[in-house]
């Protein structure tokens, strides 16, 4: 099948306005992925913004479900079609990669564990923000007119005030952190990512409106809006999971968080404290080593490099410690093996990975589902870019269930009260949209 193509010149002043029109136009489709870099230059990428809508009929990928062969089927389909593919992988796909693992908690949202699709239409804005391109199996000129003619339907609408509930109070959270520290003392693990859920039930929201509010308050380089029939994700992720360009892989794990200061002097002090924190460095280096080990399973011997260690990056509400790990993929390896041997990402599990995933299942009381999974794209050349799904809201429109999860890395040096405060800082950045 042939995609028609249309290029449109843009000025940087037009970009935000065009993004809004793209997303509002896309909201009519039952399946869509909208990825936004929010003009961040610190995270290398090919696109400022990328949108995929519609599912090509008779797409075998949706039939793959969650099974050990899902990645192999994805590879085969891409080899056959050489086309764009967009999709997600839930955290619980770990059970297919490691059959001895399981997820015992109830699903509340209902995202498929693994789903990719070939879109009917792809629209993207280049990194330089000078051009928008439409690629479609339909009429590119007609789609451009539709996007240009979008009428804003949300003017004057307010986001409802909501109070989020929790299945775990502060005392139980602190107690579990102490139990996890005991596991570390006993040598079961070195570091574990521990999270809790906030949720509302039987609520009605406009997902596009909520995403736009989240993206305005917390613009991030790996932001995403996702609709999968009646299920939605609104994501303000600062973290890249895995990128492939040619034979080069890049992963950029985040470990280490500090609250922004109220003024410039305090803010610089907070940043310096994060940069020099032995605890935060220990968390970061353990996950960086885990990432190096994961990539080594698919990369040429000797090609793995830590391009940056303990980099400090600033976001609207927090400073983050980010490291970058790269490597050269072996030519004999299918590109989906890069995901097979590194998912779930170490920043959302801990180390050693298998053991901490067992402990996560034991001590967390909500199923992660799409949280700490990934969403992204594969282009016709087999290059891809996937984020880490954090700082996100998830919504099932049929049931009215709205939830998010936040947490942090637990090490022997963790102070339970400080871990609680870090978790609540991340939660506040999401909850305040509804206050």
Offer a few descriptive terms:
30% helix; alpha+beta; eleven-stranded antiparallel β-sheet; Anthranilate synthase; single chain; 29% strand; 435 residues; nine-stranded antiparallel β-sheet
Shape: globular
Share of helix, binned: 25-40%
Query: If classified by CATH, what would the architecture be?
Result: 4-Layer Sandwich
Number of helices: 11
Biggest sheet: strands, sense, closure?
Answer: 11 strands, antiparallel
**Unreliable segments of 5+ consecutive residues:** none
Written overview of the protein:
By secondary structure, the chain is α+β, with helices and mostly antiparallel strands. The protein has one domain (4-152, 162-434): Anthranilate synthase. The chain contains eleven helices and 20 strands. It has helices spanning 12-26, 70-81, 94-97, 140-148, 170-185, 207-217, 264-276, 278-296, 336-340, 353-363, 416-431, and strands at residues 4-9, 31-36, 47-53, 85-89, 114-117, 121-126, 131-136, 191-200, 222-228, 231-237, 240-245, 248-252, 254-259, 305-314, 318-328, 350-351, 374-378, 384-387, 392-396, 401-410. The strands form two sheets. It has an eleven-stranded antiparallel β-sheet with strand order 1-7-6-3-2-9-10-19-20-8-16. Strands 4, 5, 11, 12, 13, 14, 15, 17 and 18 form a nine-stranded antiparallel β-sheet that branches. α5 crosses α11 (416-431). The longest helix is centred in the middle third of the chain and has 19 residues, at 278-296. The model has no long low-confidence stretch (mean pLDDT 94).
């Amino acid at each position: 099948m042939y995609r028609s193509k249309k290029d449109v010149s843009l000025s940087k002043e037009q970009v935000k306005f065009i993004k809004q029109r793209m997303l509002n136009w896309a909201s009519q489709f039952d399946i869509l992925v909208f990825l936004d870099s929010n003009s961040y230059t610190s995270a290398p990428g090919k696109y400022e913004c990328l949108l995929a809508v519609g599912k090509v009929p008779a797409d075998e990928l949706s039939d793959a479900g969650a099974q050990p062969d899902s990645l192999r089927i994805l590879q085969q389909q891409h080899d056959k079609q050489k086309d764009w593919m967009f999709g997600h992988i839930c955290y619980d796909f770990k059970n297919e990669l490691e059959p001895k693992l399981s997820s015992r908690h109830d699903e509340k949202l209902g995202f498929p564990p693994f789903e990719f699709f070939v879109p009917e239409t792809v629209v993207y804005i280049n990194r330089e923000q000078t051009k928008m391109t439409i690629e479609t199996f339909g009429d590119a000129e007609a789609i451009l007119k539709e996007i240009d003619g979008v009428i804003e339907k949300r003017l004057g609408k307010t986001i409802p005030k909501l109070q989020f509930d929790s299945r775990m109070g502060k005392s139980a959270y602190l107690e579990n952190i102490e139990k996890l520290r005991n596991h570390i003392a006993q040598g079961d693990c070195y570091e574990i990512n521990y999270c809790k859920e906030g949720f509302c039930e039987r609520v009605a929201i406009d997902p596009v409106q909520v995403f736009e509010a989240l993206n305005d308050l917390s613009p991030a380089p790996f932001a995403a809006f996702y609709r999968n029939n009646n299920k939605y994700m609104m994501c303000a992720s600062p973290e890249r999971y895995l990128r492939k360009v040619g034979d080069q892989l890049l992963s950029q794990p985040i470990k280490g968080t500090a609250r922004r200061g109220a003024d410039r002097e305090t803010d610089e002090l907070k940043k310096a404290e994060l940069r020099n924190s032995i605890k935060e460095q220990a968390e970061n280096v353990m996950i960086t080593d885990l990432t190096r080990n994961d990539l080594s399973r698919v990369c040429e011997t000797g090609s793995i490099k830590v391009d940056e260690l303990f980099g400090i990056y600033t976001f609207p509400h927090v400073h983050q410690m980010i490291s970058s790990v790269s490597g050269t993929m072996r030519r004999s390896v299918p590109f989906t093996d890069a995901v097979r041997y590194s998912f779930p990402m170490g920043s959302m599990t801990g180390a050693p990975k298998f053991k901490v995933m067992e402990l996560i299942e034991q001590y967390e009381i909500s199923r992660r589902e799409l949280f700490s999974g990934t969403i992204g794209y594969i282009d016709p050349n087999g290059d891809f870019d996937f984020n880490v799904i954090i700082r996100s809201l998830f919504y099932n429109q049929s049931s009215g269930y709205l939830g998010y999860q936040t947490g942090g890395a637990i090490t022997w040096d963790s102070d339970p009260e400080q871990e609680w405060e870090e978790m609540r800082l991340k939660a506040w950045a999401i909850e305040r949209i509804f206050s």
